[in-house]
Amino acid sequence: MMFITTPGRLRKRGIVGMNMRNVVYIGQNNKRKFYPRVDDKLQTKVLAEEAGIAVPRLIGVARFQSHTKGLKDFLAREQTFVIKPAKGSGGKGILVITGRDGEDYLKPSGAKVNDQMIRRHVSNILSGLFSLGGKPDVAMIEELVNFSEVFDGFSFEGVPDIRIIVYKGYPVMAMTRLSTRESDGKANLHQGAVGVGIDIGKGHALNAVQHGRPVEIHPDTGRNLKELIVPDWSTFLELAARSYEITELGYLGADIVLDKKKGPLILELNARPGLAIQVANNHGLISRVKQVDEELKKCHRTPAERVTFSMQNFAV
Q1: pTM of the predicted model, to two decimals?
Q2: What is the average pLDDT value for the chain, to the nearest integer?
Q3: At what angle do helices 233-247 and 303-313 cross, to 10 degrees?
Q4: What contacts 251, CB < 8 A, 6 or more positions away?
Q5: Which domains are present in the chain?
Q6: What is the C-alpha separation between 167 and 285, in angstroms, rounded?
Q7: Which sign, positive or negative, has the C-alpha torsion 233, 182, 71, 42?
Q8: Are 196 and 217 in contact (CB under 8 A)?
Q9: What is the pLDDT of residues 196-248, one digit of tens each?
Q10: Residues 32-49: pLDDT tens digits?
Q11: How far apart are CA 58 and CA 141, in angstroms?
């Protein structure tokens, strides 16, 4: 259990604080000209597809207010889907539809959403209600990930995802984010999802937190969170490592989901990943970043080689 009490103890544990993250990790490693590659989720998807990196299928894009009028017909054959702002942040503006009830759509909670509500939601996205800086945006409609049964009981009415921090192409820390009743089926820690630290070497659960406080069982399902094991773990890590080449960002977060049929898929990338991952892992980022910097002095490796290095050196 990690108890955060003083700056001195934080330094001894190698914990990265907000100032260090912003000034050093982000400021010195992420050139602003590359930010659109991750801040615009539509651009991220295009780049990933061009590089042969697996992502959820794009059903369509609404770019203008006039497009909202045709949504009912456009979605007529879609039973499940996700609507999200291309330039949203913090999980805001994401609408998850898991089924139909006649003319209505169903959210993960079972709540009904009608056509007018769908149109209003897309209109709000286009007007910039959820975008960074409130700028006009576009609405992406993606297929809903059919997540694997291996996460049954670990997530409540939503798709769990794996957040992997990548430093200069090397996966250095990971956690899975599990949706709860409070988070309304979304894997977003700020909205009440549970974060579970994942051993980079093996893909096994380490520690878990909700709202920054340690937890041992899922608040809605009662499942013991330390029993979680991520299958095909090296593939997750390689997807994250390859995201370095398509973004050219030295410090980023890769959010990956596990589809039942398609396997691991990149959901989105983030140039400003949060720091709660350290609490979930009970370990600071500083020592791992230093190891990567030392390794980079020796040679430059392929994504697969970087994954092997991380699994060997950052295993708990």
Answers
A1: 0.88
A2: 91
A3: 130
A4: 25, 26, 29, 30, 165, 166, 167, 168, 271, 273
A5: 7-54+147-313 (3.30.470.20), 58-142 (3.30.1490)
A6: 10
A7: negative
A8: no
A9: 999 999 999 999 999 888 999 998 899 999 999 999 999 999 999 999 999 99
A10: 999 999 999 999 999 999
A11: 6
Amino acid, single-letter form, for residue 95: L
Task: Return the structure tokens found at 84.
Answer: 């999200």
DSSP-derived pairing of the beta strands 194-198 and 112-113: unpaired
Rounded to whole angstroms, the Cα distance separating 75 from 40 reads 23
Q: Which amino acid is at 213?
A: R
Specify whether the CB–CB gap between 175 and 195 falls below 8 A: yes
